[in-house]
């Protein structure tokens, strides 16, 4: 509220700039709230059907109804999970896959905690979620209707001469002005609390539609074990790469410098001009060694990330690419250093592959952060056929991403285009 009243004291342009994000967030909340209200209506009508199926099953007459009823519940819960994921919530399905069979009897239902959690969500969303969704959907319409009520109330029939969704009867000019006040009040409440109402509507789904904490613990331990192994493997590969780069590059050049300096030292008494020539070659070799050392350092943690941020670093990569490349970065704030370094490596390796192998005429890089997930997408219009199993740089991308518990998807049909999509968890 302090931010709201403070905005009233700013110049008109600043007020509009401050209201625009609130308006967009509230419109988004009403849109997703309306979708949630639609799911709430389906859940509300599902509740009596579930009660009927349960009662008939207890009587031994409706056991065949349990499986289709739970199949419908799972479908409805899956739709809600997709909505929650679009809202930025990390809600994974607790089921092994699309072929996981729903319970076929009450006994199986009692033994399946994930199915029971789906049922709890159906009851909550069919009441709580439906009410909040209907409120979010009605608030902007009530605000517009009531704010304009003094303009048209005299033309409306007596039954329509009401404000605040029909709760207050206003049949005189004095009370009609009250409609304008209620409309502005509802609009302000919608701007301020619309997104919070959406969060309240989503809370039961976030709590109940994910994997059961007790059952998911062993799977999570196994996944973290695999992730840790991938991280150690990626670390070992990176150390071997740095060792090879230092041994085959900078170290050999430094040895060559030592040999050249020794030769120059021997030539000084006999042929000073030749000694100067040898020292010049030694100086060139030192400069090459320094350049290789800088390249190794940049490959460990590029300084450009610290200096210019992820957007600046990726634009620098695109400008150095021989294939015309566009960059679109929408990442508010900074991500953890390890995430930014991995995203930088993914784009660098992908653009290297584009330049060397794809025969593409153009490429694009898109980076988005939604919730706690950073998504990196690199697309080119080349010949396609990229295969991570063939020993290309894609295998290195996959290893690095898996080390951060992320995922890599490569779509590259013969003839193109090629799309590399990486999702990296980046914390709260």
From TrEMBL:
GO terms for molecular function: kinase activity. It is an enzyme of class 2 (transferase). Gene3D superfamilies: 1.20.5.1930, Histidine kinase-like ATPase, C-terminal domain. Its EC number is 2.7.13.3. The chain crosses the membrane at residues 41-66, 119-143, 174-193. The keyword rRNA processing does not apply. InterPro entries: HATPase_C_sf, HATPase_dom, Put_sensor_dom, Sensor_HK_TwoCompSys, Sig_transdc_His_kin_sub3_dim/P. Signal peptide: none annotated. Keywords: ATP-binding, Kinase, Membrane, Nucleotide-binding, Phosphoprotein, Transferase, Transmembrane, Transmembrane helix, Two-component regulatory system. Residues 338-428 form the Histidine kinase/HSP90-like ATPase domain. The keyword Transmembrane helix applies. It holds the Pfam family HisKA_3. It catalyses: ATP + protein L-histidine = ADP + protein N-phospho-L-histidine. This is histidine kinase. It comes from Glycomyces endophyticus.
């Amino acid at each position: 509220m302090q931010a709201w009243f403070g905005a009233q004291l700013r110049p008109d342009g600043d007020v509009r700039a401050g209201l625009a994000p609130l308006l967009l967030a509230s419109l988004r909340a009403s849109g997703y709230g309306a979708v949630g209200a639609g799911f709430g209506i389906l859940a509300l009508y599902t509740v009596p059907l579930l009660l009927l199926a349960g009662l008939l099953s207890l009587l031994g007459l409706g056991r065949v109804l349990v499986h289709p009823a739970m199949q419908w519940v799972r479908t409805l819960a899956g739709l809600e999970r997709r909505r929650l994921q679009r809202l930025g919530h990390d809600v994974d399905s607790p089921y092994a896959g699309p072929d996981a069979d729903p319970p076929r009897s009450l006994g199986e239902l009692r033994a399946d905690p994930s199915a029971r959690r789906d049922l709890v969500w159906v009851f909550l969303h069919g009441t709580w979620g439906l009410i909040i969704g209907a409120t979010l959907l009605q608030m902007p319409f009530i605000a517009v209707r009531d704010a304009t009520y003094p303009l048209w109330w005299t033309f409306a029939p007596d039954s329509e001469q009401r404000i605040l969704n029909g709760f207050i009867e206003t049949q005189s000019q004095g009370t009609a002005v009250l409609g304008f006040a209620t409309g502005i009040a509802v609009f302000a409440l919608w701007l301020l609390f619309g997104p919070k109402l959406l969060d309240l509507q989503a809370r039961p789904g976030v709590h109940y539609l994910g994997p059961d904490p007790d059952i998911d613990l062993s799977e999570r331990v196994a996944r973290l074990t695999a992730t840790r192994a991938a991280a150690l493997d990626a670390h070992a590969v990176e150390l071997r790469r740095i060792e090879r780069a230092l041994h085959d590059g900078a170290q050999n050049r430094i040895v060559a410098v030592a040999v050249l300096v020794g030769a120059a030292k021997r030539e000084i008494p006999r042929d000073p001009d030749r000694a100067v020539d040898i020292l010049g070659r030694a100086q060139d070799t030192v400069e090459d060694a320094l350049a290789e050392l800088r390249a190794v350092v940049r490959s460990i943690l590029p300084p450009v990330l610290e200096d210019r941020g992820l957007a600046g670093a990726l634009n620098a990569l695109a400008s150095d690419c021989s294939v015309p490349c566009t960059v679109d970065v929408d990442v508010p704030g900074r991500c953890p250093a390890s995430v930014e370094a991995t995203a930088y490596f993914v784009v660098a390796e992908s653009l290297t592959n584009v330049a060397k192998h794809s025969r593409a005429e153009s490429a694009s890089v898109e980076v988005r952060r939604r919730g706690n997930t950073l998504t990196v997408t690199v697309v080119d219009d080349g010949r396609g056929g990229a295969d991570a199993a063939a020993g290309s740089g894609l295998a290195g991308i996959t290893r690095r991403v898996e080390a951060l518990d992320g995922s890599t998807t490569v779509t590259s049909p013969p003839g193109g285009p090629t799309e590399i999509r990486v999702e990296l968890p980046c914390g709260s």
